Amino acid sequence: MASVASPKGAFSESYGEARARFLEAARSAGAALHAYEHPAAKGPGGEALYLDVALLGPADAPRILAACSGTHGIEGYSGSAAQSAFLAAAPRLARGCALAFFHANNPWGFAHRARVTEENVDLNRNFVDHAKPYPANRAYAELHPIVTPRNWNEDALAAAFRDLDAFRARVGEQAFSDAYNGGQYSHPDGLFFGGHRAQWSNTAFRAAVRAHLGRARQVAMIDLHTGIGPSLGHVFLCFDPPGSAPHERARAWWGERAVNREGVTHKAVAKYQGLLIDAFRAMLPQADTMAIVVEFGTRSREDMQRANMAGRWLRYEGPKNPPLAARIHADFIDAFYPREARWRTAVLEQSRDILDRGLEGLAAD
Q1: What is the CATH number of the domain that holds 150?
Q2: Domain count, the chain
């Protein structure tokens, strides 16, 4: 078997394989492991599903670098590989520092190679207060019939993108991005649906944050994703306002590109609702926190819009045409988890540098 520090050894073809690699790498590194089992949902083979947390270093460390994989299900394959490879390289921790890896925040989506949870919920729009009125996204109602075609063929898709382009031209890039990507709570069968209740993955993540990060005085979190940015490259998404302490810390640790959105393929980044990193920060009022999203780029913006529409089509229309669904799902997988060896090598190299710099910054603060 290839070393987990190499592309062949780090990347997996199933959730079970990825979890086994992660647990093995964590044990070999001497990390403490904690598992949160989903009480109801199962994998495609009936296997149990877990959020796993590996903590390397003292459990009561005052400074912790945390990194997440699988918030968007299928995107966890690359994040898992990055985590496993980093653990396999036996990272050294400065005194008073610890490393916490959250593996498979959305294990159902990971196992079923979907971006959403078992309820078609985008977990990264689910961290809102479900006891209050949901954030309004009235413009999504106009987009919903466009982005949910019943038929999947080139003519139908061409018509959908003509309508999307017309909507964008009419409202502008920012309003388009907010409507399309920002999150919506009105159409449960739509795109980027934030849910009408906290998902199990939401509550499990919160429990893990309280248990493993709640005593630290300084915590930085990196949420690993795929799909935005140039192929073979990555982009940072920092949502802290310029001049704030977390914004300046991100710049100090990773350079100017950590805060200037260099390489982002969206002409305007949406005002997102219900982000996991926002919940992380809100849960740790006693700590000095910083959170950032890292996206490993795969395809163009339009191709990724098509992939997101495909993911939704597979759930609601795919069972009616299994041969077509199989072809569409294969392309969907490649959009979020490319097989290309150069891409996978780039993910390992770049994630290692990002995590190394994070640990260095944490130790120097």
Answers
A1: 3.40.630
A2: 1
Give yes or no for a contact between 257 and 249, defined as CB atoms under 8 angstroms apart: no
* Distance between CA atoms of residues 227 and 303, nearest Å: 10
Selection from 163, 121, 153 nearest residue 274 by Cα: 121
pTM of the model: 0.96
> For 47-77, b where at least 16 C-beta lie within 10 A, e where not — what string?
eebbbbbbbbbeeebebbbbbbbbbbbbbbb
Q: What CA–CA distance (Å, rounded) separates 253 from 294?
A: 14
Which tens digit of pLDDT belongs to each residue from 250-277? 999 999 999 999 888 877 888 999 999 9
Residue 265 placed within a domain: yes
Q: Which amino acid is at 315?
A: R
Q: Report the DSSP pairing between strands 63-68 and 50-56.
A: unpaired
Task: Note the pLDDT tens digit of each residue in 60-109.
Answer: 999 999 999 999 999 999 999 999 999 999 999 999 999 999 999 999 99
Residue 2 lies in a domain: no
Host domain of residue 345: 7-364
